[in-house]
Amino acid sequence: MTGDPWDDVRARLADAPRERLGELQEGRRVLGIPRPARIVPRGTAWHLGVLLLTEEAVLATGGIVRSRAEVRRGFAAESQRRRAELSAAAARGGVPEGETVHIDWHPIDLSTLDERSAPLAVRGGETLVRWSAAGGFMPLARYLDERVELLRHPPERA
User: Fold this and answer.
1) Residue 24: other Cβ atoms inside 10 A
2) Does 158 fall in a domain?
3) Is residue 69 part of a domain?
4) Which 8-state DSSP code applies to residue 149?
5) Which superkingdom is the protein from (predicted)?
6) Structural domain that includes position 63
7) How far is it, in rounded angstroms, from Cα 123 to Cα 140?
8) Per-residue pLDDT for 76 more than 80?
9) Residue 2 confidence (pLDDT) above 60
10) Which of 17, 46, 117, 124 is deepest in the core (most CB within 10 A)?
């Protein structure tokens, strides 16, 4: 895929909202005392389902966390505890409370799309996107048209 289709998508999204990108940094020890982890800012991107689009790159999504102040409470599951830790890490990193931040994303090398460049692949000369882990592939152009429309005109109460 050349840069032109992505530049077209960026132009169509110029006034659409972007979401924060962050990177989890485990806490360092200061005078032997462990500091809590935080999520540090790494820019913004348009969220297009399984893809994140920045001015320079196409990224595969990872986790999404909503920033919340740290609160002590009991958890029924370890996954809830981890989610709360990540939410607090986002708040410690400067993400305003209630805003979302994407973590664990990774860049996609558009020059070498193959079966391993999930969620994008090229088959029969056509670029495809796998829109969910269990879902099949669909043409990238159609997927991007749908996602751009959803981002620019979200459904009521979305």
Assistant:
1) 19
2) no
3) yes
4) H
5) Bacteria
6) 3-152
7) 11
8) no
9) no
10) 46
The 10s digit of each residue's pLDDT in 98-155 is: 999 999 999 998 888 866 668 998 888 889 999 887 778 899 999 999 999 999 998 8
- Reported pTM: 0.85
SS3 9: helix
Q: b/e per residue, 98-134, with b = 16+ CB within 10 A?
A: eeebbbebeebebeebeeeeebbbeeeeebbbbbeee
Residue 28 domain-assigned (yes or no): yes
**Is there a domain that residue 78 lies in?**
yes
Look at the chain and report how many structural domains it folds into.
1
pLDDT bracket for residue 52 (50, 70, 90)? very high
Torsion of CA 5, 11, 17, 20, to 10 degrees: 60
Cα–Cα distances in Å, from 77 out to 22, 70, 73, 74?
25, 17, 12, 9
